[in-house]
UniProtKB/TrEMBL annotation, chain A:
Coiled coil: none annotated. One of its GO terms (molecular function) is homoserine O-succinyltransferase activity. Its main location: cytoplasm. Homodimer. It catalyses: L-homoserine + succinyl-CoA = O-succinyl-L-homoserine + CoA. The gene is metXS. This is Homoserine O-succinyltransferase. Substrate binds at residues 225, 354.
TrEMBL record, chain B:
This is Methionine biosynthesis protein MetW. InterPro entries: Methionine_synth_MetW (IPR010743), SAM-dependent_MTases_sf (IPR029063). NCBIfam families: metW (TIGR02081). It comes from Aquitalea aquatica. Pfam families: MetW.
């Protein structure tokens, strides 16, 4: 598929400032904030071809393209978003943003709190998926988008797509919920808490106000990321890629890096701790833990989804054990019970949870076919 | 998008049994031809179910809502009595859990439409008399590569229905697109049943 190599080209991030206070689920109020976003493609005259891409735990607004021709890496979903790609920027106006609480340009714990002149740090309020969706709706207003042709996300991003369909039924034509879950299981929360504990107990964390100490809780972030990566890969995928391969050919009988998998995880952890904010990591995992659109409806997810008018595409991956196919089937079952239109694909893949970022053939075909349908409606 | 305006004859017979504006579940929906036709001509709503992701993709291309799933594990995604018609077209003979799917179909739906190649068709009997497993238009496999593991004739299927408190509302037996009324179990190659739960 040669057209998968095409790119949206050089892109630029933009900032939208909001000075209407945002009331959060926690009861806290964010008096003003900014959202960092990027757009690709052209909004049509009817403003009907807009697609919102919601990011997962460590994602951001830089979804596709490059900032400069010699950038080593493109945006995080560049393989799916671009001219001729399944999320086709020749047909759609695609919006990616950094969620509130993030560390890539939107207001978050590492931003300066105008009230104090200091980084928010530990005082930044906990944000939830519904809070994000509300802030995203304001961005949609700003961009003149009354109704999204589609809201798309994988993992935590899929939860936002689901929440959008519930909270703003009139503003979402299609919701694509990929490798996601209707709420976290005890095991999911447990993994998140180990990651949080790694950060919270790092002496460099300073209760979240490490900025003032010119410190970074690298060890905690590193461990959190290493743990995360284990849950993103499948046992088979990891075995296929690393097996028991040794770096130096034989056992060294010590605790330095010996197995390739150790090397990989440490590299990923180090890289991550260079650029990701520890407080943001805590917030993102909390948003995951708290996500539960049925909580205020006696745990009745069907009742929650009944409000939605969107049509849905749900997809899962066979080797994903972080958000397994069973979790996606819970969503499908609820959508069917709520009498919603839904397409469900369960993609054979060795890539584990990460598969939503990969290009397994049937996944690409399903995305392409579904988004063709969306595009045909937009131009009809 | 593929616009299917003429249906395969056997699917057309099923389509004729489906009430306008009803809710339909098509099990083993393949490329979605039946539902696509029903959507456009009878304004039905519903889902296809197929085991093969490539068929799910074909359904999406045909504008049909398909849910990837394994019929052998039942229809857990669907609540009781959600559908007016549940269709299982030329698939029951290839299933392990034959009895379970029949019961499940009438749990989630008011009526079931089941079609299968009639093993009692005379050409099949003739091939057996000649010392070979039947191979024909409706049974296009050799014994060693066939997915069909649970063959039955008209009476066998009707006995399974009776055993499960299921009554036959309508039966059509066909051969090469013609309805067979005289000696159907001998002269018919394809059987169509419309069944429902016994009242009470």
């Amino acid at each position: 598929m040669s057209d998968l190599t095409r790119s949206v080209g050089i892109v630029e991030a933009q900032i939208a400032e909001f000075d209407t206070p945002l009331h959060l689920a926690s009861g806290a109020v964010l008096p003003a904030y900014q959202l960092c976003f990027e757009t690709y493609g052209t909004l049509n005259a009817a403003c009907s071809n807009a697609i919102l891409i919601c990011h997962a735990l460590s994602g951001h607004h830089h979804v596709a393209g490059r900032y400069a021709a010699d950038d080593k890496a493109a945006g995080w979903w560049d393989n799916m978003v671009g001219p001729g790609k399944p999320i086709d920027t020749n047909r759609f106006f695609v919006v990616g943003l950094n969620n509130l609480g993030g560390c890539h340009g939107s207001t978050g714990p590492s931003s300066i709190n105008p009230a104090t002149g200091q980084p928010w740090g530990s005082t930044f309020p906990v944000v939830t998926v519904p809070d994000w969706v509300r802030s995203q709706a304001r961005l949609a207003d700003r961009l003149g988008i009354e109704r999204w042709a589609a809201v798309i996300g994988g993992s935590l991003g899929g939860m936002q797509a689901l929440q959008w369909s519930i909270d703003y039924p009139d503003r979402v034509a299609h919701a694509l919920v990929i490798a996601s879950a209707p709420k976290l299981s005890a095991q999911n929360i447990a993994f998140n808490d180990v990651a949080r504990q790694a950060i919270l107990t790092d002496p460099d964390f300073h209760g979240g106000d490490f900025y003032a100490h010119n410190a970074i809780p690298r060890r905690g972030l590193r461990l959190a990321r290493m743990l995360g990566h284990i849950t993103y890969l499948s046992d088979d995928g990891m075995g296929e890629k690393f097996g028991r391969m040794l770096k130096s050919g034989d056992y060294q009988f010590g605790f330095e890096v010996e197995f390739e998998i150790e090397s990989y995880l440490r590299y990923q952890g180090d890289k991550f701790s260079d650029y990701f904010d520890a407080n943001t990591y805590l917030l993102m995992t909390k948003a995951l833990d708290y996500f539960d659109p049925a909580k205020d409806l006696n745990d009745d997810i069907v009742a929650a989804l009944r409000k939605a008018t969107a049509r849905f595409m749900v997809a899962s991956f066979t080797s994903d054990w972080r958000f397994s196919p069973e979790r996606s089937r819970e969503i499908v079952k609820a959508l069917v019970a709520a009498d919603k239109e839904v397409v469900y694909g369960e993609i054979e893949s060795v890539h584990g949870h990460d598969a939503f970022l990969m290009l397994d053939g049937p996944y690409v075909n399903l995305m392409r076919a579904y988004l063709n349908r969306v595009a045909e409606e937009v131009t009809a | 998008m593929s616009a299917i305006n003429t249906l395969r004859a056997d699917l057309q017979l099923i389509a004729d049994w489906v009430a306008p504006s009803s809710r339909v579940l098509d099990l083993g929906c393949g490329d979605g031809a039946l539902l696509s036709w029903l959507n456009r001509h009878k304004a039905v709503r519903g889902y296809g179910v197929d085991f093969d992701v490539n068929n799910v993709v074909r359904c999406v291309e045909a504008g049909v809502n398909a849910i990837q799933g394994n019929l052998e594990t039942g229809l857990a995604e669907f609540e009781d009595q959600r559908f007016d018609h549940v269709v299982l077209s030329q698939t029951i003979q290839a299933m392990h859990n034959t009895e379970q799917i029949l019961v499940e179909m009438l749990r989630v739906g008011r009526e079931a439409i089941v079609t299968f190649p009639n093993f009692g068709y005379w050409e099949n009997r003739w091939q057996i008399l000649q010392g070979h497993m039947p191979v024909s238009e409706t049974i296009p496999y050799e014994w060693y590569n066939t997915p069909n593991i649970h063959w039955c004739m008209l009476g066998d299927f009707e006995a399974l229905c009776a055993k499960n408190g299921i009554r036959v509302l309508e039966r059509v037996v066909m051969n090469e697109e013609k309805r067979i009324h005289f000696l159907p179990n001998l002269r018919g190659s394809l059987a169509f049943y419309r069944v429902a739960r016994q009242p009470g």
